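RETRY 2/3 - previous attempt timed out on the joint model. Re-submitting the same 136-residue input unchanged.
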Amino acid sequence: MTSGQVTRWCPECGAGYGEQIVACPRCRVVLTDERPVESSAPVVVHRVPDAAAGALLAGVLEHHGVHAFLRSTTLPGIGEVRRDWATTAWGELLVAPAEAAEAREIIAEYLAALERGGSVRDEDVVEGSGEAEPRG
Ligand SMILES: [Zn+2]
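RETRY 2/3 succeeded.
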C-alpha cells in the first residue's frame, strides 16, 4: 500500500489521492471530497470568461434544479498553471451527463435573455467624444 489514505477524488478521472494532494496531476483538476459516481462523469456544458460569470451561471442552473460545478483552468495554489494555453476561458461549467441537455438549454436561454434585455446600452458606454470646450 502507498502511504496515507484516500480522502479526495479527481472529479474527472475518478482517481483517489491523499489529503496533501489538492489537484489531480494528470487532469490538472482540483480534487473534491466527494467520491465521484463512476457512471456519471460530469460533462462541460459551457466555458466561462471569469469566476464571476461562472458563479452566476452556476447559480442560474442551481435555480433550475440542475447541480453544476465550476472547474477553473487556472489552478489556485499551484501558480499560473494552465490546463491549456490555447484556452482563453477562465474555466468550465460542468454538470452530470443526464442534465447536460437541460443545462445547455437553460444557459442558452439565459444568454439570449441577456442579449435581448441588454443591461449595457450605447448611452451608458458613450462618454464624452473628446470635444473639450475651453472655458474662461
Ligand atoms: Zn484526474
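The first strand starts at residue 8 and ends at 9. Closing ticket.
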